[in-house]
Specification:
72% of the residues lie in helices and 1% in strands. By secondary structure, the protein is mostly helical. The chain starts with a helix and ends with a helix.
């Protein structure tokens, strides 16, 4: 009896929790599946870091750390999806200058983490937590662009106005990321171009901006090559990676790509089995940048295609959510925050199979790392907040329709009762006035006379 009551209480708590999760339940489900799956490859692939840092190979601490990151991430999704998404319209305008300061500080005073040869992280004072500022910048910039494209204008959009109000902030943000993280800057610029295209920004203006971006990148590379010590940059690293990617000479592959290709080839169709990867001991970033190669090695092509399918299904769900959004700002926010998550995942997979040069992009929600998981969760929270608003509007319309139907039924019932009462009254009066039965004495008048 006690166990039954405890079970019923747990069921009630679970139902209450599910009731409090508003928004698109399908997105919630896909995110939960990716997060749950992430524990197995992270637990397996962290052995390399465990040997390097502790010498014991014990990955329990890395698993617990990843569990904490995922738990905090889901708390962020829950908290953010409760905030009305239109609040972020104004927040993005205020947060963008703060992001510029953080990016500049990272460029000059950033730290190196887990063997990465670039200063992309900053330490939070008194807490000891580090985070990658470019991930914060990506969210703020996408919302800022969505805000600009969705605002109402009294005058037609011109290139001159958009240059100062839109593109100058975009180029400042990307130029502060570019020296230390070319792949993130390139992905961010591509996603901004995609977003303005979806927002029906004129194509001739987009072509001008793309051309200006190519010229600016070329100028940056020339200056960095001419004055290599003038400012921190990684141009030589980019050039070597592109050269290794494009060369056809044997034994000229990047070391990480070579080990990733061995891992994928070893995996075959069904894989070696969970935890049985060999190349995880040789890949420097096996739990983050190259975790997809470890997944294919342990789970085979079936596991690799399964993970890819989850991201593609999440992409299609983002398309549906953008289509259902009740405002232009909501549509653009879903596109601007949702599509980069999927494209980042595809980029990570493409690097592992040598379709792209080495980029350093993690696999969202699966790779280890706090800031990447948390920023992805914040993006998902905002997207779910957009779907929650649509859900609330649909619920309000449904409730309104039910109230109108109930009121109409009450009116119909009242009219029916009045008609029945009137009919009964009319029928009673007719019988009394026109009855053939006459109870009076016909001789009364003669006798009285």
């Amino acid at each position: 009896m006690i166990r039954a009551r405890a079970g019923s209480k747990n069921e009630i708590k679970m139902k209450q929790l599910l009731y409090n999760l508003k928004g698109d339940k399908v997105i919630w489900s896909f995110v939960a599946l990716l997060a749950l799956f992430s524990f197995m490859p992270v637990f397996s692939a962290s052995s390399n870091l465990a040997y390097l840092n502790h010498g014991t190979g014990n990955t329990i601490s890395y698993l617990l750390k990843h569990l904490a990151h995922i738990f905090i991430g889901f708390c962020m999704i829950y908290w953010v999806h409760k905030v009305p998404y239109h609040y972020f319209r104004g927040i993005s305008k205020i947060a963008l200058p703060i992001v510029w300061f953080l990016l500049l500080y990272t460029l000059l005073k950033g730290t190196i983490i887990d063997g990465a040869n670039a200063s992309r992280w900053i330490q939070v004072p008194f807490i000891g937590i580090s985070f990658q500022t470019s991930t914060v910048a990506s969210i703020v910039l996408m919302i800022f662009v969505a805000r600009y494209l969705s605002k109402k204008r009294e005058t037609p959009l011109t290139f001159k106005n958009s240059l100062w109000e839109l593109w100058i902030p975009v180029f400042i943000t990307i130029m502060l990321i570019l020296p230390a993280n070319f792949s993130t800057a390139a992905l961010m610029f591509s996603m901004v171009i995609m977003l303005v295209f979806v927002g029906q920004y004129p194509l001739k203006y987009i072509a001008t901006i793309v051309g200006a971006g190519i010229v600016a990148l070329s100028f940056f590379i020339l200056v960095a090559k001419a004055f290599p010590d003038a400012f921190p940059n990684r141009v030589d690293t980019w050039m070597s990676r592109i050269e290794n990617f494009t060369t056809d000479k044997p034994d000229e592959d990047d070391y990480q790509i070579e080990k990733a290709k061995i891992a994928i080839a070893t995996g075959g169709i069904y894989g070696l089995g969970p935890g049985k990867s060999v190349q995880k001991n040789f890949l420097p970033q096996s739990s983050s940048d190259f975790i997809y190669a470890i997944i294919v090695e342990e789970w085979g092509i079936i596991g690799g295609l399964g993970v890819m399918s989850l991201y593609l299904l999440l992409f299609f769900r983002f398309v549906i959510a953008a289509h259902k959004a009740n405002s232009l700002f909501g549509k653009l926010v879903v596109v601007g925050l949702g599509f980069p998550i999927v494209f980042q995942a595809l980029t990570n997979m493409a690097v592992a199979v040598e379709l792209f040069p080495v980029t350093g992009q993690t696999l969202p929600l699966i790779s280890s790392g706090g800031s990447s998981i948390w920023m992805t969760c914040i993006s998902l929270g905002i997207i779910i907040g957009v779907t929650k608003k649509e859900e609330e509007i649909a619920q309000e319309l449904s409730d309104k329709q039910q109230r109108e139907e109930a009121l109409q039924r009450m009116i119909d019932q009242q009219i029916k009762r009045e008609e029945e009462a009137e009919a009964a009254l009319l029928a009673g009066a007719t019988m009394e006035d026109y009855s053939i039965e006459d109870k009076t004495n016909p001789m009364a008048a003669v006798m009285g006379k």
